[in-house]
Amino acid sequence: MAQHKTKKSTTKADKMNFLNNKAATTTETTWAALQDSAEDLDHDPNSAPHDEPNKSEGLTKIYIEQTIENLSAKLIQTWKVTADQIRKTANELQALQQQVESMETHMADYEDRARRNNLRLHGILETVLPNDLPVFVTGLLHAYAPDIPADMLLVDRLHRVPKPRHLPDSTPRNVLIRTHYYHIKDPQNAR
Predict the structure, then answer these.
(1) By the 8 A CB rule, do 171 and 126 touch?
(2) Which has more confidence, 36 or 166?
(3) What is the pTM of this model?
(4) Among candidates 144, 146, 151, 159, which has minimal Cα distance to 180?
(5) How far out from the chain centre does Cα 127 lie?
(6) Which of 31, 52, 98, 177 could be 158's S-S partner, Cβ–Cβ 3.0 to 4.6 Å?
(7) What pLDDT, on a 0 to 100 scale, did the predictor assign at position 108?
């Protein structure tokens, strides 16, 4: 059993050495490539030869400057794209708000037009039953506007509306009617 434990620890040690060697090789290769690129950038026939510490400082400085420039360019591009998206979204939002306002105006107009044939009659007693209400209302309209022909006194629909809570129980509910012809609402102009 002792031999078996030794094999496992040897295997772990071998793996660690392999990984350390691999990392060192990769670091050396990367460092050598950076030095070569720095030498290419620093190669100026008029400049004096640099000693080894200055080369690594120059390499680090160049690397940092390039990294900062790249990051700046990426940030500027990202900001431009984001600003364009915000502008586009704001324009779309403004267009939608205008559409909503236009639709609200049209809806209010349609509702007003739909209600313009409506009449609200007050004081019709509750003793008039719902089945008798159409005949009663037609007779009331004929009595109110005798000059309007009977075939023009058409009522599309009628019903009693709920009573407001502040009114006493003895008060009859109002009757809402919709006349077929708008001019019935104003008997002065019906002729």
Answers:
(1) no
(2) 166
(3) 0.40
(4) 151
(5) 54
(6) 177
(7) 86
